[in-house]
Amino acid sequence: MKAAAIRRWGDATEFQIVEVPLPDLGDEDILVKVTCAGINPADWKMRAGFLSDAFLNTAFPLVLGLDAAGVVVAVGDNAGEFTKGQRVVCGNNLFQGKPGTYAEYLAVDKRKVTLIPEHVGFETAAAIPTAGVTAWQALFAKDKGALKSGQTVLINGAAGGLGSFAVQFAKWAGADVATTSSNANLDYLTSLGADLPIDYKTQDIRDEIFKWAPQGLDLIVDAVSGGSLGDAFALLRPGGKLISIATLDVDGDVQRDTAEAKKRGVVKIFALLNDEQMGEDLKAIVALMASSELVSPPIKSFQFDQIVEAHEEIEGGHVRGKLVLNIAGDHS
Ligand SMILES: NC(=O)c1ccc[n+]([C@@H]2O[C@H](COP(=O)([O-])OP(=O)(O)OC[C@H]3O[C@@H](n4cnc5c(N)ncnc54)[C@H](OP(=O)(O)O)[C@@H]3O)[C@@H](O)[C@H]2O)c1
Predict the structure, then answer these.
(1) Helix 129-140 crosses helix 278-290 at what angle (to 10 degrees)?
(2) Which of 27, 154, 206, 284 is the most buried (most CB within 10 A)?
(3) Is the CB of 317 under 6 A from ligand 1?
């Protein structure tokens, strides 16, 4: 099969479209003919070698990519309800040593897959898994945000992939939502339902938050970190939670920050996507899309051989919505 692969860690120009063997199909795997693959910031971080520890057992050429949408072409003996011909959206088995989603075919564990509803297209679906499920878990998982109706939440980094989902999920759950973005994305975030869109370049985030929520916030989902909120704990009410979406530097020392939060009367939780059962969260998310309670983030699509441009753009850090790679077939 054809795949976009790298032969060593490096910049975006390391990608080449190469022939690689079809992935092995495990007993509980599904083989998907990939129509579209989603692109995430984690992909460029892996490509550059920042997450190379996770690939200790992987040989080059390495096929990256975390998210896919396509059609089932084969199923393992214990692949549950899935059958050939179904349209599916899914995660990957990259960290289990299988090729990622930037390829014509993908073998993926059945627990990371769900069916795509009739009126949802492949591009739209491929944009969901990593960004959508991470946002869903950060807001709603009992050991993370556990967000309730009527609470106040700030989404830091709201105009990107994760943020575009998080804003809508939080509104759907009945929360009041503040967001950060540059000026160019304020109207976009209002269109997604943001109650308080803050321009992080020209406004004082703390002043704006306390004018809006004088007691402090119930929850922050921080998808930027790196000190971008200043003293983030000071934005929370007593007992409020900061969910830090792990970025490159994991935004600090986990033990020290957790203890410091406790001392300040708030909670800091470092959140990583848990993809073991991501099919279940994906199912809930695509159902919201099918019922028009969730709109797709704007998608910029790239042809398979434009992988270098796509990676340069995601690495720039200012995508609105999502980037998707069109690999084969009809993407609608
Ligand atoms: N650990 C995990 O499991 C996990 C899972 C998913 C994502 N992540 C991480 O979460 C982060 C966000 O992911 P993503 O998919 O949403 O990325 P993304 O789509 O690349 O995010 C781009 C957005 O970030 C905004 N932004 C940049 N600097 C900002 C700042 N200082 N304040 C507010 N907004 C800012 C930009 O808005 P403007 O253009 O308006 O500045 C842009 O819309 C990434 O670092 C990613 O690696 C981690």
Answers:
(1) 100
(2) 154
(3) yes
